[in-house]
Amino acid sequence: MALNQRNSSRRTVVGLTTVVVALALWYLATSVTGFINPSRFPRPEEVWGAFSFIQAEGYGNGKLHQHVFHSLQLVAMGFAVAVGIGVPLGLLMGYSRRAEALINPAFLLLRPIPPLAWIPLAIVWLGLDDASKILVIFVAAFVPSVINSYTGVRNIDTPVMEAARMLGVKGWRMVAEVLVPGSLPMIFTGLRLSLQASWTTLVAAELIGAVYGLGSILNQASQDIYPAMILVAMVFVGICGAATTWLLGQLENRAMPWRKGRVAA
């Protein structure tokens, strides 16, 4: 326990040192030496000014907290629906050969299609409202959750499955006591990939026809040729992505306490 805490503290210090060094190099390259043209990449004080402006006055139809909350809401809804459908479907395909034979051909046809390719169809079906963006996020998060849940079931040791069948474990007991516990490491790997795909796809989806959201800030700032505001939006996409990944890591630690310390926070 003490060793894990020391390792965690060491990683935190190293991470903070890396951030401080990067900020210092940024300041030296832009504000001190002028090595990087500020018209190409903004100075730290310009980014701080853009952050203060969007906090106080607002930009792109809203203030920063409104954009952040809206993006978080879209990611949460698309991710939740994708996981709620994708994980059970992956478990079913991994456990049942018949279900795999029935579902897998259609899944293999849909799997190679990039999530962004669904944007035009989502707009035709659902317009430019949030529903079309949630659909695209769903598509992006759905595939990793299915694949990793399926792989998790297939990686369960054969003697474990045979022992469960010999003991008469069937139906929901099989799911709750064998399939889910045995697949949890791969399921959470899929959730991490799904969450990352959700954020990547959200920003792309919000570049088109969004009123609020971090993607809409990027779109508006690019049209206004406002590099500092672009960087503000990019930083908060990273912060939101890191925060949600950390929350997922905490859930993973609670779901699998025996692996605590081995799970990336």
3D structure, described in words:
By secondary structure, this protein is mainly α. 78% of the residues lie in helices and 0% in strands. The protein has ten helices and no strands. Helix 3 crosses helix 9. The longest helix is centred in the C-terminal third of the chain and has 36 residues. It is globular.
Span between termini: 16 Å
Helical fraction: over 70%
Radius of gyration: 22 Å
Poorly predicted runs of 5 or more residues? none
Largest sheet: none
Class of secondary structure makeup: mainly alpha
The beta-strand count equals 0
The fraction of residues assigned to DSSP E strands is under 5%
Number of helices: 10
Coarse shape:
globular
Question: Mean pLDDT, rounded to whole units?
Answer: 86
H/E element order: HHHHHHHHHH
How are the SSEs ordered, and which strands pair?
Layout: H1 2-32, H2 44-56, H3 64-95, H4 97-110, H5 119-126, H6 130-154, H7 158-166, H8 171-206, H9 214-223, H10 227-255
Helix pairs in contact: 2-10, 3-4, 3-6, 3-8, 3-9, 5-6, 6-8, 8-9, 8-10, 9-10
